[in-house]
Amino acid sequence: MKKQSNLSRLMGYAGGHRILTYLSWVLSVVSAWLALVPFWYIWRMLRDILEVDPDFSKASHVTSYGWRAVGFGILSVAVYIAALMCSHLSAFRIASNVRKELLRHIAALPLGVTAGYGSGKLRRIVNTTSSAAETYLAHRLPDKAGAIATPVGLLVLLLVFDWRLGLLSLIPVGLGFLIMMKMTGPEMERKMNEYQNALADMSNEAVEYVRGVPVVKTFGQTVFSFKRFKASIDYYEKWAIAYTKALRLPMMFYTTAINGVFAFLIAGGILFTGRGVEQEVLLNLIFYIIITPVIGTTLTKIMFMSEDSMIVEDALGRIDGLLGEKPLPEAGACREPEDASVRLQHVTYSYDGRKNALEDVSLIIPAGQRAAFVGPSGGGKTTLASLTARFFDPQKGKVEIGGVDLRDISKECLMEQISFVFQNSRLFKASILENVRMAKPEASREEVLSALKAAQCMDIIEKLPRGIDTVVGEQGVYLSGGEQQRIAIARAILKNAPILILDEATAFADPDNEVRIQRALSSLSKGKTVIMIAHRLSSIVDADCIYVMKEGRIAEKGTYGQLLEKKGTFAAMWDSYTRAADWKIAKEARA
User: Membrane-spanning regions, if any (predicted)?
Assistant: First the structure.
């Protein structure tokens, strides 16, 4: 199958504005040719002046030629502006449609896929990458049409007046063109891809670093603790310097070639005039010296347009990569779960296709029970919770809620069954009321206030200037991590789903907020099936069943007392945890 061109792919988003793109090219070509007409009048002005030399007062047409040159110059600019108006109207529509399709697709993707990309990369694809396509359509394509038309018109002018000087002036142009082709070849395309990858990585790591600034400040760490962010900056620096050095010589030769046209013209003028100075040759020589810089400018435009084409090629590749991510298959009709029980049957999942994050895991969490997952990092705790929420589907086995396979439950029905509270819950730039109401858009103001009370949030509301109508992030109104967590719990309380997933809900809370969050969670989890992921083992001692995850498998399971009696992995973890807590208390007492 023949690969579709970048332009054809972009035009697919243009709709009825497609004709404006093509019209902008035509107008740009007309503008480019109109811009050459003033040079014709300049030549006529020079001829009139040289013909009456030394009595320049007899050059009666110079003024009229000058005004005509100005008129055509103004007309060229006006036509070019019309071309840009057409191209921008089309480009804005195309960029808008690209962004809409990307956002619709991202909304349909499982959360596991979007989390894998990272918010920095997704934002760059949606904003920066689509902006590259917009710039390409709005400016580069009309300019490219004009840049191609200009040499055609110049070639006619150069050969009409004196074909010998015209051919001489084309020699350095040809050399410059060959060097330009070398610089903008396949190697340049590969380098451009590396450049965009480096920018994307740096953007993503920058977002993650900024989000981690509170942790840096809390623990007194430096920027070097964020090794991935620093590594991305160092890689970009080395790449940029190496790339610049690699292009130093070719760019020097290119600049020399396109600016060396004067040397060829002067040598030709001397050669063609012989011992005497011929007026016609002198006239043409002066004219060529005036007009040939346009060639260099045009070639440089074409070179940068080649680079922009590569940027758009890379941008479309990233857009296609994101659009190529498949949403999870949707169930045709919603099968209602019988209850809020959770069951995993021989579940295996791998993120990269090599090492399994979960390996043949089977378990049952009866409706209304509290299950906790603990274990070392990388043991599979978060993966197990993510599969329960259907952030992605297992490669083997199945996950059931209320006896129904998650793949047979529609997305809307599933979201009615499950609530989440993550360790890094975030609020939108909206009022507290609207942030909480996201869980239940039709909820009344009284229902939202009731959920906030149950989530221990009234102390937060009372200190805000407009209460629950205060917009977070506006006029310096910001909440701490623990306060944001309580608002997120209020959201989950308002939703009142029968299954609750808590992923390190108290991880970054200070002692005061932790106490309030624990009270809010107690209110939230009453009568619900609860899945908890925790590193603070004291928060899960009341769980009905604790699962110890290790290397993707269930190493141990049982109640808190049963696991301590086994003196296995959990008992060792508990011993380490209590030792650390006792050390902290002793240290605070000494202080």
Answer: 20-43, 65-90, 251-273, 285-304
